[in-house]
Amino acid sequence: MKLLFNNIIKKAISTNATDIHFIPTDDKIDIKFRLLDKLAPIESIQHHVYLKLLTYMKYQAGLDVSKHNVAQSGRHIYKLKEIYFLRISTLPLSLGIESCVIRIIPQYFQKGDGTTNLSELYKLMNKKQGLIMFSGPTGSGKSTLMYHMLIYAKETLALNIITIEDPVEQIISGITQVSINEKAGINYTNTFKAILRCDPDIILIGEIRDDSIAKCAIQASLSGHLVLTTIHADNCKGTLLRLQEMGITMQEMSQSLLSVINQRLITTYNNERKLIYEQLNKIQIKHLIDNNFALPNSFFNLSTQLTQLAKEGVICEETKDRYI
């Protein structure tokens, strides 16, 4: 099983796949790689082979090999030419068998080819305090964009940067990264208090998931720190509505929010990944709050950008419709 596992992982890494899916059917298990936006079929294996492979993968990720009716998730460190973190997640199905997905994450964050111009966003890192929020669906590049901004701040502004993540999935050299571990008593609330005593200039919070994390982020941004974080919302306006649901007042939003960014990673005709985003600046945020969440006329939303890219032939109509 070790040989089969290694062959699958090596093939996925060589093709730049981000995820490996093991999808059970009635008579076999289909293995598919996520390449850009799509799942590409790679090969199929028999059920009895998959069950042995699944047991091996669970063991490597520190999961309970005896449990088959509950979802589990763990991590395995894989060494090839460099080190990769493999996040292995299982899910019980009605077929009486478990599906499995492996997310492939390089240990060290790669800066990328720099094809997307982020100079306007980098200017936000010069601010001494405030909250910058990134929203969008899973896989839209929120964490990657935040990492790019942290590296810019580290390399050009010489600032003390501390992150709180659940878990830390990619390491950025020269930045203090704290991984949440509830079993060890390392949670967002007590870690936040400890971080504030360590003189940070910039704080990154992996994700705002509940009221307590939202309040910590707001308080830190109002007390002289620049805070970056993510939240799941469909658009910029939805981000503010999510904060409102979590008990953040209009006054707190108006005082703390520097910028709200909602983004997507789309695939062009040339099979390149392109980042597009809509953004509310501080003036627009105040307008929205003061006018019962009505967006200002100066706001340039994602739908308009996607339509324009389709007209220019950068993306196809199918891609445009998928994201609008």
Automatic annotation (TrEMBL):
- Indicate whether ATP-binding appears among the record's keywords: yes
Domain (Bacterial type II secretion system protein E) ranges? 196-210
Q: Does the record bear ATP-binding in its keywords?
A: yes
Q: Which Pfam families match?
A: T2SSE
Do you know which InterPro entries this protein is assigned to? ATPase_ComGA, P-loop_NTPase, T2SS/T4SS_dom
List, alphabetically, the CDD domains matched.
PulE-GspE-like
UniProt KW keywords = ATP-binding, Nucleotide-binding
A GO cellular component entry from the record? plasma membrane
Q: Which GO terms describe its molecular function?
A: ATP binding; ATP hydrolysis activity
PROSITE patterns, sorted: T2SP_E
- Tell me which domain of life the UniProt entry assigns to the organism this sequence originates from: Bacteria
In terms of SUPFAM superfamilies, this protein maps to:
P-loop containing nucleoside triphosphate hydrolases
Concerning its family, UniProt says: Belongs to the GSP E family.
Which PANTHER family does this one have? COMG OPERON PROTEIN 1, TYPE II SECRETION SYSTEM PROTEIN GSPE-RELATED
- Under what name is this protein listed? Competence protein ComGA
* UniProt source species: Staphylococcus edaphicus
